[in-house]
Amino acid sequence: MITSASSVVKKFLQICIIPVFAGQAGVLKSNRCFLSICSTNFLPYLCRLNHTRVSKEPVFMISLVKRKVLNQVAFWISYVKLIPILKKVNESSLIIDCGANVGDISALFLTKNASVIAFEPDPMAFMMIQKRFEGNNNIECINKAVAHKASTAKLYFHADQQQNSNSAFTVSSSIIQDKININTDNSIEIETVDLDSYITNLNKSVDILKMDVEGAEIDILNKLIKNGTYKKIGIILVETHETKIPGHKEMVEDLKATISRLKIENIKLNWI
After folding, report:
1. Which of 20, 56, 174, 252 ranks highest by number of CB atoms within 10 Å?
2. In terms of C-beta density within 10 A (0-12 exposed, 13-18 middle, 19 or more buried), how is residue 261 classed?
3. What's the rounded Cα separation, in Å, for the pair 170 and 158?
4. CA dist., res. 128 & res. 103, Å (int)
5. Are 206 and 266 spatial neighbours (Cβ–Cβ below 8 Å)?
């Protein structure tokens, strides 16, 4: 059921998004299976896009709408895959959400009264997540990036972020300079947290570690494995970014080989 629902959403991107960009009216009506899953969340964006004249509107507006649609698709894929995990979450659960962005995934865990530690380095996204959960004592929001060492780093913003200061693009902010969709001329200095040391110093087990950290996940996971820290975590949900970062495909394959060789069962790659 989980695979099937995820496939529906992914298939939607292939058969629906491109036709909409081409201005083919009626394409939404033919995809009722998708509408039954999550139309109320981002159908308005699709409809707006369907009536947009590409030749007359700024390119970055099209990019913004596309980004919002993709963000919603990613959220719903995540939600569907999290359903069986959420059933096991309760008020005694500790969740670490790395790359929390505006808090959509954190919010799901908070509905179970779990304790959440949310790391988000992007200043715009952090302002939104902080405001969103203001007064909620079950979540601690930290305006830092997680990495394999404690230091400072440049946080690079999405290539379209300068043209449109919409929070939709903050999902792509990264400390990896080689990431293909960022602008190396648009960055800020941020503080990084050694996630391995942070978890070790908590002196308590972590039930769920979710990482969507735009390329930094490889070095972090390698350190968690090397030091055995992964054993202190119930399940690790990771989104890898080999399609957006040159050279990361080989690194991900090496990581998969290590996970397989050591028979590690609690690290789940490409959970989205």
Report:
1. 174
2. exposed
3. 7
4. 8
5. no
Sign of CA dihedral 48, 49, 50, 53: positive
Condensed to tens digits (0 to 9), the pLDDT of residues 197-214 reads 999 999 899 999 999 999
Residue 210's nearest CA partner among 140, 116, 131 is: 116
Rounded-to-integer distance, Cα 67 and Cα 169, Å: 7
For residue 92, give the nearest of 254, 206, 173 by alpha carbon: 206
Structure tokens at 195: 């996630």
Taking each helix axis as running N to C, give the angle between helix 59-86 and helix 2-12, from 0 to 180 degrees, rounded to the nearest 10.
180
Domains of the chain, each with CATH number or no CATH: 2-75 (no CATH), 88-269 (3.40.50.150)
Q: How far apart are the first and last CA of the chain?
A: 15
Whole-prediction pTM: 0.79
Phi and psi at residue 237, to the nearest 5°: -105, 120
Rounded distance between C-alpha atoms, residue 24 and residue 198, angstroms: 50
Which residues pair with residue 262 across a beta bridge? Answer: none
